Queue: 2 jobs
Job 1
Amino acid sequence: PRIFADSADIRDIEPLYRAGIINGVTTNPTLLKKAGATSWQQAKTMLTDILTLLAPNPVSLELTELTQDAMLVQAQELAALGSNAVIKVPIGGYRTADAGADPFTGLKVIRALWEQGIHTNATLVFNTTQAFWAANAGASCVSPFLGRVADYLAKHDDKLGPPGNSLYQGDGETRFHNTEYVACGGPRQDSGSRLVQEIVTVFAHYDIRSEVLAASIRNPAQLTEMLLAGADILTVPAAILAGVADHPLTDLGMQAFCADAAVFSG
Ligand code: E4P
């Protein structure tokens, strides 16, 4: 699989890219804010720098508009920042007072951008059908957020979901009422990795060409799970990437080898 940096901070991205550790980047407004952006103008400059550094490798840039027309305008603005820009489109309609009416907003935007030759990354994917429909609409890749599923399950371990999205126990199974969080069907304590496994399996089954980009990875164990699941791309925070090559037994082993080598002469 390919490894991307999940970051908007060029100080983290550049050394990883130059070392050949990553060949793509995913950004979002939270990561831009964390990297120091305080205005859209500044954010666009930061994104342009990342696009230039990474070209021709892909850099995902997130839409923040919520209506179809506004999303398409913003997508064109972001796509104009670099030919390697991939536009992150949240699939679905958005549960806001003025934009929640059309459940197909994200799919329509993905389709329209596909027709314009603009690559898209269907983001904030939390079940397999979202991934399937996004791929069908023409998304270049789909991003299941496995870490957020794990966060959600850890937080709601008492089996009580937030209002309107509660869990129930029935037929020996734990299910989410609201399938927007995770796919239903069976106890899902491992839902984050299971979600990615399902999507990889369904895409392989139907020979779907969209890539599966495992997002929201929180630790090296999840990274390994994603490799086992067969994700095409893993986007990983720089801090996690920095730790993946470390193991105390590697250090101890090398100390012993160096100590033994020190007795050799000549
Ligand atoms: C992916 O494209 C997203 O930027 C990212 O993985 C979100 O992860 P988070 O849950 O850590 O915010």
Note: The pocket of erythose-4-phosphate is lined by residues 6, 26, 28, 30, 60, 123, 143, 145, 147-148, 215-216, 235 (CB under 6 Å).
Job 2
Amino acid sequence: PTEKGWVASHLHQYQGFWHNTRQLQGVLTCQNHFQAQDPDVLLVTTPKSGTTWLKAIVFALMNRVQYPNPENHPLLAENPHVLVPFLELGLYIDSQVADLTTFTSPRLFGTHLPINSLPDSVKNSACKLVYLCRNPKDTFVSLWHFTNKLRINNMGDNSLEETFDKFSRGVSLCGPFWDHVLGYWKESLEKPQRVLFLKYEEIKEQPKAQLMRLAQFLGRPFTPEEETSGAVDGILKLCSFDNLSNLEVNKTRKLSSGEDCKAFFRRGEVGDAKNHLTPHMMEKLDQITEEKLHGFGLTF
Ligand code: A3P
């Protein structure tokens, strides 16, 4: 099925989830060609759940021995989406087959792929998956702003109300949102060594604890010396919204896929949805969330 949607093209339903034309081609190419390796780390997110933040944090965490100095760090010169590229939205965009020979192990990649659409090589390898999501109200509002900011949809159907209606029906990029989240939630319960399930709100609330959890999961725990020397705080400061959003690179540059880097930084707060959605819309998303996730032990 095809539905008129955002990001300059129609949304197409593939394996139960919605993708725009350009992304769908990337999904197919990635499914056919990406060869996962056991040490790989995949950062899997729903769009607008804090992907940019997660990429920065994991890049800094995994490369902290190589780049111990926060004043001379690659994150100051490159956008996190350049340092940790997307599979289906970057490396395998359209029908282009990526050359991954220059990547050093452990390779870090980002993806929005739903769990059932991951390439077979990912399913058959021991690579780790870090999953990040965010409460559906803030996710929707962030998504709506992002699409308006990019101004790639001039088809006149991106009013808040209409986009909300579609999101509620599951028709959004990589939606249904709830199915995406639930797929990885179940996998994280079944295979906790393989999938770490994170929420944006939890990282906001307890950044240090979540970063240490992440480090432990990735087999790179912080040593007591690192903890006392401020390494954990250093990474959080380097990757903070204020720091990243004010860097020249993120204010001025474009990604090779065409987006302005600054489009990935808006407010970076929890609860902004209430400033944009009516009480009825807020209730509706709460109700769908309750219906869809009830009984699985997952709440937002
Ligand atoms: P808002 O639109 O609510 O501000 P993604 O990276 O998945 O595209 O998600 C973008 C959202 O994450 C935006 O949310 C953006 O402001 C927020 N964000 C980007 N960098 C962040 C950071 N370092 N810390 C916290 N939030 C961040």
Note: The first strand starts at residue 2 and ends at 4.
